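Changelog-linked ticket: nicotinamide-adenine-dinucleotide example.
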Amino acid sequence: MTVMYNRVALIGLGLIASSMFWAMKRADVVGEVTGYARSSDTRDVAREIGLCDRVCDSAADAVAGADLIILCVPIGVMADVTREISGMLKPGAVLTDVGSVKRAVINAVEPHVPDGVHFIPGHPLAGTEQSGPRSGFAELFDNRWCLLTPNGADATEVKKLRTFWQELGSNVDEMDADHHDLVLAVTSHTPHLIAYTMVGVADDLSRVTDTEVVNFSAAGFRDFTRIAASDPTMWRDVFLNNKDATLEILGRFTEELFALQRAIRQGDGEHLHDYFTRTRAIRRGII
Ligand code: NAD
């Protein structure tokens, strides 16, 4: 396989970065991969498990000479990290990120990107409720989508980054950043908030014990608990940075919920049956 990028730097060494590393090695499309994470414990684990060809003790060292720099840190620190590394980015390098929100990341990162560096924001729609350097695996991106929001970046470099993600197993599409944030508010962000809420509600009920919740969990609630176990820092940052779209979808969600609540109170079986028939058809259209 031909080497697409001679030197790749991963900043942040958690679930997404570690999965990217193993997927890059599987695809055999890059040269040396350097890595940096803020916590020395994480860097120690990375060295112990062979995550990255070289783990550096500063972000600046990790990105020096890199052709592709991938920001795999929580959204809230993307700007600080970019400011920290900006002086070390070489002209012609590609800077990308994997943040789950795109407009806020672009607004925060772009002012710190030096002239001559191609900033191509991205978001792999793949994850688990795990986090940290030990949680990654090469297959994470297989047959999942990766959305790029190029924001006017050089077309040749965008095409190359698309091919890179395809080599990692993904399907790739391009989207406007605002539209990305609205789509993800529907398909990922608001559903996570609902799962967090449902698990919080179950925990608050004094007349239902924790043991009963665990023993008698139906599949739906179990799925909620899995989603609600997702990383608190990452998800805090998602909601703080995709405020408008999440609030819009949450507003619509509560309207629908109130309508269902009223139908239950009034014994309006027709409303409930029609609603559930419509949602069943949507599911059958997806799979
Ligand atoms: P993670 O918690 O597993 O890893 C985050 C890493 O960033 C850790 O290694 C941490 O040490 C490091 N870090 C934190 N602050 C730092 C700083 N200031 N400087 C350097 N390193 C720092 O998180 P993750 O799940 O890999 O998520 C990383 C990014 O990927 C986030 O922006 C998230 O929105 C995005 N993302 C996550 C998922 C998912 O499901 N987990 C899916 C798609 C995209």
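Closing comment: Example verified and attached. The domain at 179-286 is CATH 1.10.3660.10 (6-phosphogluconate dehydrogenase C-terminal fold). The first strand starts at residue 5 and ends at 11.
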